[in-house]
Amino acid sequence: MSKDWYYAVEGASTGPIDEAEFERLVAAGTIRSDTLVWQEGMEDWLPYARAQGSVGTSALPPHAPRSDVHDPARADANTFMGALKDGFARYVDFKTRSTRSQYWWFTLWSVIFSVITAIIDVSLGMGDSGPVGLLASLVFFLPSIAIAIRRLHDIGRTGWWMLLVFIPLIGWIVLIVFYCTKSEASPNKWGPEPQH
Known about the structure:
42% of the residues lie in helices and 9% in strands. It has six helices and four strands, in the order E-E-H-E-E-H-H-H-H-H. The chain has helices at residues 19-28, 48-51, 80-89, 100-123, 131-154, 170-180; strands at 5-9, 12-17, 36-39, 46-47. It has a four-stranded antiparallel beta sheet with strand order 2-1-3-4. A hairpin with a 2-residue loop joins strand 1 and strand 2. The radius of gyration is 22 Å and the shape is elongated. Mean pLDDT is 85; it is low at 55-69.
């Protein structure tokens, strides 16, 4: 007896579809090896590559999976310009992962903009922390928090570790060590391993 399949694209569940339609979607490339799939008898949603032969005894209702099927970062997110674009594109993404290079390139952009705005404020006679610098700080504030939390997720830590910033010196040193730590080499609860 054939069981109906469900598959997820960008966190949205689609289905039920029969075996023939499922195979047609696989052949067309709509369902790839990293696409999350589920059918009755499977313990949970799995990437299609791992789902074959994983039918167990317990069934879950066909709900959308907890995480996205792919890394939401831009293809060029690990480059100097790409990190800036990706940081602002995902400025409210507190649920996925970011690599070391994504984090450090975005941090470098933040420092560059801070220096430039300080120079502009000084040249306008407003001191080194005038309105232009304040505006730049506000623009970078939320994206900086988001990428810092995603970086912590990438090493398997919750974003609450970012509160160490309120412990002078020791907390900052611990966070710098965390932000320099290599990515987890496998999927974790915040998503698949980011592209490098």
